[in-house]
Amino acid sequence: MAPPRVLIVDDNPVNVDLLKAQLKPFNYHLDTAFDGEEALKKIFDTHPDLVLLDLMMPKISGYEVCRTVKQNKDTQFIPVIIITALSELDDKLKAIELGADDFLVKPFNKLELTTRIRSLLNLKALHDDVDRSENILFSLVKALEAKDGYTKGHSERVAFYAAELAGALGIDPKEIEIIRKGALLHDIGKIGVKEEVLLKPGAFTAEEMEHIKIHPSVGFDICKPLKSLAPCLCCIRSHHERIDGEGYPDHLPGKEIPLPAKIIAVVDAFDAMVTDRPYRKKMPKENALGIFEKEKKTGQWDITVVEAFLEMMRKRKEK
What we know:
The chain is α/β, with parallel strands linked by helices. The protein is 54% helix and 7% strand. The chain has 14 helices and five strands.
């Protein structure tokens, strides 16, 4: 296993050498940067496991480096420890507001420094384990879809539409990310559906249809043990529920169906309509939108979500 990668960022070579000397006894891969611009390049190129960051630097300040790292979804979980001569409370508060994970004032205690580094590296390792587990599930979805040329890319398209629709509905960005993840995983339960049924070119028998209906609950059971996916579980389990209560697997009435599931239900149905399936050819997008326009009050989909979707698609056409 590769040693944790620690990036030391300080414009003073003496300070850099001091930190390197103090961390040399530990099994860390030490890298250095001497200004904010170099620091950001190395962070985005190498994705270190932890950054020791000075605040007062040329080109780009430590504040701006911290802000950039913490606002980017690819680097936001990299721990950042601010090490600075600035001791004013305002400086500390500003760094914390920008997302810094810890703050040490020079001169610092070596034991305190190494203890905080070790603690944050342990947290980073835990996050990386969760991240790897999620990625395995996403890979399973891709592998499942790759077996069926008709549905290849379906989950990614549903996730794209779902995130855009959630934004159009004014949903908070953090909730949008949950919906996007849930949409990517919404069909993972089809792993439990017999291949001969999943790829059948003709109409399903009643028995086959009942078998296909197990996939939301199977997907729920697959993802439930991973606690990081708990907010996404409603998307996986309830994306085939209907407003009239005739959906599955729980026959929820409209008021009990979570909004993320209502969003995915609409965009999932749309993508299914406009792509070829083994049992039928795709229809033009305008025809599919016409179905939503005509049936938005029939009880299958949430009216507010459908109207927002139709408006979103009209705006996309106008661009």
